[in-house]
Amino acid sequence: MSKVSNKTKIATALVGALALAGSNLVIADPLSNVQKADSKIHAEAATSQKKVDKYYDQAQDMAFEYAQVADTRESTKSYNDYVAGLVADQEATMKLIQDDINGVDKLRQGVVPLMFKMVDALEQFIALDLPFNLEARNARVERLRNTLNTAEVTLAEKYRLILDAYNIEREYGSKLNAQTGQLALDGKEILVDFLNFGRVALYAQSQDQKQAWMYNADSKGWDQLSDGYLRNLNKAIKQARGQGAPDMFALPIPAAEAAQ
What we know:
Residues 1-28 form the signal peptide. InterPro entries: UCP028069. Keywords: Signal. This is DUF3450 domain-containing protein. It comes from Shewanella nanhaiensis. The chain is of the alpha+beta class and 260 residues long. The protein is 65% helix and 13% strand. The protein has a five-stranded antiparallel beta sheet with strand order 1-2-3-4-5, covered by helices on one side. A hairpin with a 2-residue loop joins strand 1 and strand 2. The relative contact order is 0.05. The N and C termini lie far apart (187 Å).
């Protein structure tokens, strides 16, 4: 009886050991699965983090590029506004120029008659002035008339030449001018030195310096001067030609006309 009991105890112990061992095997399988799942989760989390980091970097790059594009847009807008202002100003200037061009014909219609009148007035002035250097002065007027009728010369150049002629006449009135020429007296031509004291007086002296005359605007003739003026007149002629030092000289002048 005791032997059977011992065998029974041994069998029972073996069965218990096998049961315990089987129980451990069953418990080990779920733990292994959990560990594998955890590793997979970490791996996927790492992959996801890499994607997040990648997308974040891309987002940062896009934000930087956007900021650059925004700055460029502002700069471009400012430049375009500046160019638009220039274009508007140029268009306004072009309009003014076009208006001037459109008015050229009207200006020409007014200026051309004026220039002919200026030449006529210059010719009349010379005819009424003291008769000094008449050949050159009348030739200048004739050249102006020919120029006015020449198509090759621009309107501006024609006007400039007329102003030059007026300026030359103006300078005659403030200078001593001497020149050699022929003086008609008593049907004879005498070689003399003419001297005009501005437009105040006109004199003539024979080449031998023995005779002298002063132009009389009233009689349109020449009045002979006394011998006492010969030396002073010769001095004045030399000064006018730059052949003598500036010095005082005494010569008669026509009496001033009474005011009307």
